[in-house]
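Collaborator request, handled under Task 6.
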Amino acid sequence: MVAGAVRTAVRGRLSRGRDTGVMSARLVRARRGAVAGAGAAGLWALLEPVAARAFGTEYTDVRLLGRLATEGPWWPVVGVVAHLANGAGFGAAAGAVGVRGPLAGALAASVEGVVAWPGMAVMDVVHPDRRSGWWPPLLVSPRVFAQEAVMHALFGAAFGALLALADDERG
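Structure tokens returned to the collaborator:
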């Protein structure tokens, strides 16, 4: 549905050279959401080492993404960039459908985390830190799940707050 709306909005602007009203507003919300999502993901990346220590794990999303892409010395950079991109993608989708405010953001991000959690079964098989034994089995780790639940809620609250701030400033 969102993809169709984006296509319609882009097609309308290119073919007729005019604003498409509601679709244009949705695209603005998606852009604002992408920026807020990237900002919230940056906050997550900064807080994640503290959360890992608090939950007694070695797991971080930045390491998950970075080491999945490369086992070389650039994995932290790759991991942060991938994490920011994921945050922007979530933000664009959530912004486009009208998620607003810290509570709604926390709820949306928490739902996304729970829905994505079964994907940890794949990570348990393919990720180099699982294969080496650096991490415990992720899918069944209550500590990693709790850490991810808290981080998703914090990310979502930050996303919702940043998006509300952007809406207040821009109208």
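The cover message to the collaborator said: "Residues 30-170 form one domain. The chain has eight helices and no strands. Please let us know whether this matches your experimental observations."
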